[in-house]
Design goal:
Layout (H helix, E strand, L loop, with lengths): L22 H12 L3 H20 L4 E3 L3 E8 L2 E4 L6 E4 L2 E8 L1 H8 L10
Antiparallel strand pairs: 1-2, 2-5, 3-4
Length: 120
């Protein structure tokens, strides 16, 4: 588990690691911020991701206002190449999950907006 500094509701991660927020840390933040017990916090995080997973598997988009959209995109079959041998190999068609950040999230990440502001 990565150490977290919860000052000012910002997650500050160790500089020795790639900054990452895990599901366990998210549950801990819900526990601290909302006053849920640890079991409820963990269950809420699990349910949230289960709903997103189930919705995407069903072929539906997930749209979160102010955050972004998760979409399923069909990639067509295409020719590929084995990098070791150089042999041509076919790459099958497949579905991939894409995420498009909202303008608001992009603004917050770039420092153009505060978390509660709305883009103009």
């Amino acid at each position: 588990m990565t150490p977290i500094d919860k000052a000012d509701d910002k997650v500050m991660l160790s500089t020795l690691e790639t900054p990452t927020l895990t599901k366990a840390e998210l549950a801990e933040l819900l526990f601290d911020k909302l006053g849920l017990n640890k079991r409820e916090s963990k269950d809420m995080v699990e349910a949230f991701f289960d709903i997103i997973h189930t919705t995407l598997v069903a072929g539906e988009d997930v749209k979160m206002s102010g955050f972004g959209n998760f979409n399923i995109r069909r990639k067509a079959p295409r020719p590929g190449r084995n990098p070791r041998t150089g042999e041509a190999i076919p790459i099958k068609a497949r579905d991939v999950v894409t995420f498009h950040a909202s303008h608001k999230l992009k603004g917050v990440v770039q420092g153009d907006l505060a978390a509660g502001d709305t883009p103009e």
